[in-house]
Write a structure and sequence with these properties.
This protein is an all-beta fold. It folds into 2 domains: 117 residues, Sandwich (Jelly Rolls), CATH 2.60.120; 108 residues, Jelly Rolls, CATH 2.60.120.10. The protein has 1 helix and 20 strands.
Length: 275
Amino acid sequence: MAREHVEFLQSQQLPWVPCPWPHPGAGSEIKLLSLDPDTGACSYLARLPSGWRSALGALTVNEEFFVLDGSLDWGERRLGPDCYARIPAGAARPELRCSQGAVLLGFLDATPCETEAVPGQTARVIDTFETPWSHEGMDPAYGDLGMRWKILHHDEATKDTSMLVLTPSQLAPPGLRGPQERHDCVEEAFLISGDFLSPLGPMYTGAYFWRPPQVLHGPYGSRHGNVCFIRTLGDVLENNWSTHELTLDRTAPARPLIPSATYPGLQPSRLDSRY
């Protein structure tokens, strides 16, 4: 059973619960954004308390994380806000420590278990501040409007890709009307900052979606701009455009697609007013 389509939820509405896995482990709390009930693959937020540490040497799963707030010590290296790490299954890792607390956006491709390190498997750590924004390879329909990305990970075999995507403020299709799009790959996203306008209503900082392949979506825009963490899984990311167009309503109410069995009691809700 694959993960269900959710588009979108505001992670602020999800509860913090004790972490059920050996990693991040005891003392940490998570918000489960989505889960494959068969494999244990999941996307989550993790809240690490002051004094947290993990001495696990290697895991049986591929892991990715992005530091949203606070900092994490990776051996002798300090990973501050906006640092990214990808640790392949079997890769040896140093002791991880968190002296002042941190919040991570994390991804696991199965339920994690401790294992022996595999020679040749190495982790990759990136301070994304040191990576330039680019529109190379981006669909001109977006790149020409000023959107940019930072490719953090790309697997040539599976085509899985992880990236940061930047959207400028007051972006919208011409005349607030445009086609929809679909992809051959899974697409999931977490809105790190800013807002998105969509036919399903506005998304704000903390919004998350998991979209299976071939689901029509869009058009999109943004009032204040945004930075988003996006992963595409299982195939190349290509935009296949519809022949019909939809109007983008900047005042549309939130009417997200939230499967009630997976997220019991979660209701579409606008965040508290900024004023």
